[in-house]
Write a structure and sequence with these properties.
heterodimer; A: eight-stranded mixed β-sheet; B: 488 residues; six-stranded antiparallel β-barrel; 28% helix
């Protein structure tokens, strides 16, 4: 897509005004051209808040959302603070998404308010590379505070939105100050010629992006380095027209 | 304290002191008590009763000094507010201290274990008032007891009146009137009782029931570094407290620097005008001598302090101090300095309950729920991770949820399973991954087997199911299916 130089100059100007004179923090690209092209800035902005939720039943258990966040955190380079209220996160799976156990400090907070406080503390410190928090409610004010803390230190903030009941997941439509908002749901994986299970496949939807468009991608789940991948049939062009074709191939 | 010169515990032993011209037994050990010797007996009579009685002179001054040492040990380890309660007790204020050791039960268990390790037989009671705790520790049936505000009256009532710290003459006189328990005494009309026995009985009753306060005489350890500030006018506003906390921290850091030390545990004590003491205790993961960080740690908790009618004395104490080791930071331009997280960890750890801030580490166990150990957040990097042969779910259900599943025995994955009222058809599956019970952990796991399957349903959601038993031998498990985790 040819970019109008005037438009991009204007965008830069707006970004400078928005950041209040602070230095731009750069982005963390996904390393997949099809995805990075759709995300404003070419990747997840560092020093910003990003929200991730699971789709379907994932809104309650948040298993794939946690792995998606772990993959992002794994691709940063320092220590990670992971704040939870429930004790069901299984650390070996984070290691399998590339997040070595030495890199994660877990904080088990009693309630959501303390999760927010812990996240703020971690973001403000500046020595961490990512702060992850599992939250059901994220009011505008709280998200704004997280966003400001993240902007100040350049640490990436990831809020895994996870609710007690499916009906509460409508809360994900409420506006927040986050930079991007993602929804990760499971898709049937590619059949293998032998009995067994291949790499998990996700429908990753970019529901909201500040100064950007929505998009959705069909991706293969995180590997041992936390990298996502395009499914083989999409990466090499669609073979069968019946396959579910989603934006990534466009 | 006899220390190393003490005889073996099965030898009858009595400690002897003088009362006027009589030589009386002051204390006996369990073996001597079993022989029928009790404190207060004349020595000659006791020696006539038991042939091999080991009689030694009591050393009350030495006992008091030893109790003082024990109090200082408790001060460093357990609570910022500790008093020795001669002849045989310690008094600890639990406010703001128990959360660091996993609640009151954890506190009592830890204290009992450590005292037992040093050879001290201890009885421990936690109660809302010191009077109640004192009586319960000495007269309750079980060696450790925790009483909340609701159960206090009920647990105090059956105790004998000796639990009230009254002198022996008063106790004898009350007994003669037929009053044996605290409940009976509390039911008596107060005025005639005060007329006859003086105000002491009523005061002790009120102290036990928490109707009057009881000042603390803090144990003083001269070697602990402390700074204090007295106020002519009592202060109470949180901002004022924070300001003076900052000033005390500066003084303490100067004092620490003079001695080449740094603090591992800080206690900030507020003495109120009504003689009650409020405390903030902050621990640090690494030795600390930084004014800003110390102030931050202490001021974080100022709102937990109830100033009452005002605070007239603030004391800041480094209860645990260590030599500060200087380390060089990255000096070359190429290496990036690894960020120091200790201040973040301190801030978070002092806010949260004990053990809620941790890192995970692999353990030598194949059983999933035992494969994760929690270690200190700032422990040295362990370098190893879990084996990566089999995928592990990101959510682990604890306990595993029983599901209804249909599967071919012995080693086929389930064709479908029902969890939470929803039936899911299994489209793809991988397994079994066989995990054997760990007989060295529990006898019941001698022959136990779990077969784990990773299954994917029609919508692409992935689950981690296991079957108890190997599918053939009922001795290895009852062949029921459980959902243990969710992948995505």
């Amino acid at each position: 897509m040819p970019v109008n130089p005037q438009i991009s100059a204007l965008r830069d100007k707006i970004a400078r005004i928005e950041s209040g004179g602070r230095r731009a923090r750069g982005v963390l690209p996904f390393g997949i051209e099809a995805v990075d092209r759709k995300v404003p800035g070419g990747g997840l902005a560092l020093g910003a808040l990003h929200e991730i939720a699971g789709g379907g039943n994932g809104a309650v258990h948040g298993a794939s959302a946690a792995l998606f966040a772990a993959g992002i955190a794994a691709r940063t380079s320092g220590q990670v603070l992971w704040c939870v209220t429930r004790r069901d996160l299984f650390a070996p799976s984070l290691a399998q998404a590339g997040l070595h156990p030495d890199r994660v400090i877990f904080a088990e907070a009693g309630d959501e308010k303390s999760v927010l406080a812990c996240m703020e503390e971690g973001l403000r410190h500046g020595g961490l590379s990512a702060v992850v928090g599992e939250l059901a409610r994220l009011p505008m004010v709280a998200s704004r505070r997280l966003q400001l803390c993240a902007e100040g230190s350049g640490t990436i903030a990831l809020a895994i939105r996870r609710w007690r009941r499916m009906t509460e997941a409508a809360d994900f439509g409420q506006p927040t100050a986050s930079m991007t908002r993602w929804r990760v749901s499971a898709l049937p994986s590619a059949p293998l010629p032998v009995p067994g299970i291949s790499r998990a496949r996700w429908l990753v939807e970019l529901i909201r992006a500040r100064a950007g468009d929505c998009a959705d991608f069909e991706l293969e789940a995180c590997d041992e380095q936390g990298r996502l991948a395009l499914p083989a049939e999409l990466a090499h062009g669609p073979v069968d027209t019946d396959a579910r074709r989603i934006g990534a191939a466009a | 304290m006899l220390g190393a010169s003490a005889p073996p515990p099965d030898t009858p032993l009595a400690l002897v002191g003088r009362e006027g011209r009589k030589r009386l037994i002051l204390a006996v050990n369990a073996a001597a008590r079993a022989e029928g010797i009790a404190p207060g007996m004349a020595v000659a009579r006791a020696q006539a009763l038991v042939a091999g009685l080991d009689v030694r002179d009591a050393d009350p001054a030495g006992d008091d000094a030893a109790l003082e040492r024990l109090a200082i040990w408790a001060l460093r380890r357990y609570s910022p507010i500790v008093a020795a309660d001669p002849p045989d007790g310690l008094r600890l204020d639990m406010a703001g201290a128990s959360h660091l050791l996993g609640g009151e039960e954890g506190f009592v268990a830890d204290l009992a274990r450590r005292l037992a390790d040093t050879g001290i037989a201890a009885r421990i009671a936690i109660a809302p008032t010191y009077g109640a705790a004192h009586g319960l520790a000495r007269f309750s049936r079980s060696p450790t007891i925790i009483v909340g505000p609701d159960g206090m009256e009920a647990s105090l009532a059956p105790l004998p009146i000796a639990a009230l710290r009254l002198d022996t003459a008063t106790i004898d006189a009350l007994r003669r009137l037929g009053i044996d328990s605290i409940g009976e005494l509390a039911a008596m009309p107060r005025a005639p009782m005060t007329l006859r026995f003086g105000p002491e009985v009523g005061r002790r009753l009120d102290q036990a029931y928490g109707r009057t306060g009881e000042p603390f005489e803090l144990v003083e350890a001269p070697e602990l570094i402390r700074v204090r500030r007295a106020f002519a006018e009592p202060i109470g506003a949180p901002e004022t407290l924070a300001r003076y906390t900052g000033k005390l921290v500066v003084q303490l850091c100067e004092e620490l620097e003079r001695q080449g030390l740094s603090a591992r545990r800080l206690d900030l004590l507020f003495t109120r005008v009504d003689n009650r003491i409020e405390a903030i205790r902050a621990g640090t993961a690494k030795p600390l001598r930084d004014v800003k960080r110390m102030t931050r740690l202490l001021c974080d908790r100022i709102e937990t302090v109830a100033p009452g009618f005002g605070i007239e004395l603030m004391t800041l104490r480094a209860s645990v101090a260590e030599p500060l080791d200087y380390r060089s930071t990255a000096t070359s331009l190429i290496d990036q300095a690894t960020p120091d997280l200790s201040d973040l960890v301190d801030t978070l750890a002092n806010r949260m309950a004990h053990g809620r801030l941790y890192r995970c580490a692999p353990t030598q166990s194949e059983v999933p729920e035992r494969s994760v150990a929690r270690i200190e957040p700032l422990a040295a990097p362990i370098g190893v991770s879990w084996p990566n042969d089999w995928p592990r779910p990101s959510r682990l259900l604890d306990p595993p949820a029983p599901v209804e599943a249909m599967a071919l025995l012995p080693d086929h994955p389930p064709a479908s399973f029902t969890w939470g009222g929803v039936r899911r058809r299994v489209k793809r599956a991988d397994g079994p991954e066989r995990i054997f019970g760990e007989w060295w952990v529990r006898d019941g796991e001698m022959s136990a087997v779990r077969d784990y399957f990773q299954v994917e349903d029609e919508a692409g959601e992935r689950f981690w199911l296991f079957r108890r038993g190997d599918g053939e031998d009922p001795g290895t498990g009852d062949h029921r299916w459980y959902l243990h985790g969710i992948f995505a």
